[in-house]
Protein: ABC transporter related protein
Amino acid sequence: MNKKKTGNEHILLRTLGTLGGGKGMWILAAVFAVISALGMLAAPAIIGVGIDSMFRGDRSFTRLLGYVALLVLIYGVSALFQWLLGRVTNRISYLTARDFRRRLFRKLSALPLSFFDRTAHGDTVSRFVNDVDAVSDGLLQGLALALSGVVTTVGAVFFMLALSPAMTMVVVLFAPLSVWLARFIGRNAQNYFRDQAEIVGRMNGFAEEIFEGRREMKAFRLAEPSFQHFSEMNRTLYGVGVKAQFYSSLSNPGTRVVNNIAYTVVGVAASLLAIGGHLSIGGISSFLIFSTMFAKPFSDITNIMTYIQTAAAGARRIFRVLDLRDEMPDAVDAPAPDAKGDIAFAHVRFAYDPVRPLIRDLDLTIPYGKNVAIVGRTGAGKTTLVNLLMRFYDVDGGAIRLGGADIRTFRRADLRRCFGMVLQDTWLFSGTIRENIAYAKPDATDEEVVAAAKQAGAHDFIGRLPGGYRTHISDMGEDLSQGQKQLLTIARVMLADPPMFILDEATSSIDTRTELRVQRAMEELTAGRTSFVIAHRLSTVQGADLILVMEDGDIVETGTHESLLAQNGAYARLYASRLETL
Ligand SMILES: Nc1ncnc2c1ncn2[C@@H]1O[C@H](COP(=O)(O)OP(=O)(O)OP(=O)(O)O)[C@@H](O)[C@H]1O
Ligand SMILES: [Mg+2]
Structure:
């Protein structure tokens, strides 16, 4: 328990260190808090003096009005600065949220892809949205309360000491009791708040999966079980949330009881002192007001702690992402890659999961300009080869060289610029058709875009869309067919016109006639440039200069279509089985 607490304090200190707005804002906030609290403290003193002057028989009405006017002025100024304090803390909180979101976003692009293989996307989204809000809101409310609380408490002690040191002792001695009570109750709440953040994250992850798989869910009639699972989580969240709120709601009434007892004791003691002539009536009223002011922050402590605990729970989840190891950084003085160099795999070893080796010892050289086809059964490691070439993952052993230099010596962006890539999973974004095609070359002219679309065989279907090239595609192209999406991504690389190409099942969903046209355009484009084509339809790879046959992460055969058929090995078997199924 103790250990967890220090953890929380550590997290809070770290969060404070990253607060937005810089020192200036904080100093401003502190100044406003002090002025506003001083106003609130001055008022009771004036009330006391006013009452005493009445009791001394000095019943001048103008004098009384003077006190009232002074009070109004002081309360007004105090309220004004209270408002200013709110504005500044608001500002700090939004700046903090903005900075956290920015850092998280940065982090996401710096994290290795293996992070995304392991994490539910919705959970990550939840860190961006819910946790960042929890941190900024929690700090906003918590710190504003804490700041004015500290000033008020300290100030009240000074005023009380001036009036009666003995009674001040009584008031101050009661304070630890209410703090202890608040902490005792708060400790329980804290664990529930942490659980609450975790569950919200998991629910987001699950909801996202259901969204993605909504058709499969219906097809496999899993709607009911999914609903059950979601309800289960929802119920747990309800339970945890209610408990968290229950415990934090206990503390306010709890401390209030303690404070009221203290108030009564002070009242009695003050009356006795007054009877003995040690304290004036005005003094009693001032003192009682001061003692309430002194105690109020202590009952607020539980509120403050609730806010801060929620903030700490959120911050912990944010820091967990921020603390992950980045991909190996790019070298600063990285040389530019030779985009027209040979590609060599030298003793490459790689596994996504260390306990399941995939590529054990891969050796291969591809001279520039060759059209390479990679074939092999599902799961053989074809896409993996591309992942390594693009440095989406780094090799575990050996090296991949481009133009004789290890690709790890280049900046990733420079390396990736050498390749135009069409992936197995098409990726489109919400925007117009034109923007999607021009993704890698935003300054392309309309003519260039249309030419690329024509070359990719996408022009016809785009022409039939209501808005043509200006048609907006939403939700990653959900309103297009799979084949249409592929044509758009092919048009995209054709427009980019890179020195090398990678096509991973780029035409798998396109009808055979269109595919043939695309293939011809592709051949024209890749003539004299290195290209990698992965295809299950062997008809698409027959013309390649070099065919790599993969099995279980190894290249088991290399050659041309004819030489491989003559070899009568893995390729010939693959070819025969395809013929059978046709
Ligand atoms: N991100 C990943 N994390 C862990 N394992 C992975 C990952 N991607 C692929 N694998 C595993 O690596 C192996 C090779 O996968 P790869 O995607 O390279 O196959 P492929 O030859 O492209 O198959 P397909 O023809 O189905 O596209 C498979 O066994 C797969 O389970
Ligand atoms: Mg693949």
Observations:
- The longest strand covers residues 343-350.
- The CA atoms of residues 168 and 354 lie 67 Å apart.
